[in-house]
Design a protein that fits this description.
Length: about 250
């Protein structure tokens, strides 16, 4: 019984590193798997529709390459813009748009909503770090989305993750290593479990064989130990006092 309790305690102690490793692996998968799926979606969409800015659930990640919006948005930031109805845009909002005839995306602030002679409403935009507004106003159909946030300095990492080498080193390799670890852990665990089961079966067979031998009389049962007779107390005889007769 003591050995079994010790083995159980050892198993519990041995399980702590496994729990930590499993939790770390699950967290790794929870982070890397969505990154891989988003990257694959953006890559596929960029090849399928090169004229459009790819998005996932209406959100497009963009990498900042100039400082025209400093200090609000800096170079190498990863920004996110969400598709929006251009009629809902207001002055002082930051938008991403594609200038006419260009493949680049510009992220600037709306400084004015201007109505043209033909009744069209256009957006006059300007970079916060620029001295003058953009020469050409932005048409509604050119709007990619409204700026909703950024990850400072993550642009280069995101750019590297879009490349095949980046996908392999930062996403595929960690996932493969974790899966390999999980498979090896299961193999080692099952092997140890089988050894324990084999040992238990061997012990059970030994006990059964011993019981059968005892029933058949092949092994004499241990003789009962004779009970010891109770010891009598020591009798002390005192000499008779003077004048008393011995009885």
């Amino acid at each position: 019984m003591k050995n079994s309790q010790a083995d159980a305690a050892k198993g519990k102690l041995g399980g702590v590193p496994h729990i930590i490793a499993s939790a770390a692996g699950i967290a790794l998968i929870a982070v890397l798997l969505p990154v891989m799926l988003v990257n694959l979606t953006l890559i596929i969409k960029s090849y399928a529709r090169p004229e459009e800015v790819p998005s996932v659930f209406g959100v497009s990640p963009l990498i900042v390459e100039s400082g025209s919006m400093a200090p609000e948005i800096l170079v190498d930031d990863l920004i996110f813009v969400k598709k929006v109805n251009a009629d809902d845009l207001q002055a002082d909002e930051i938008i991403a748009f594609q200038p006419l005839g260009e493949k680049v995306v510009v992220t600037h602030r709306i400084v004015e909503l201007r109505t043209e002679e033909d009744g069209r409403t256009v957006f006059v935009t300007k970079g916060d770090a620029n001295n003058v507004a953009d020469s050409d106003p932005c048409e509604k159909y050119q709007v990619v989305g409204r700026y909703i946030g950024r990850l400072a300095g993550v642009g280069r990492i995101a750019l590297f993750l879009k490349e095949p080498l980046g996908m392999i080193l930062c996403v595929a390799v960690p996932l493969a290593l974790f899966l390999l670890y999980d498979v090896l852990r299961r193999v080692i665990y099952n092997r140890g479990r089988k050894q324990e089961e084999d040992a238990e079966k061997a012990e059970l067979e030994r006990l059964r064989a011993l019981a059968a031998s005892l029933e058949a009389g092949e092994i004499p049962a241990p003789a009962a130990q004779p009970e010891e007779a109770p010891k009598k107390g020591m009798e002390i005889i005192y000499p008779p006092a003077e004048g008393e007769e011995e009885k």
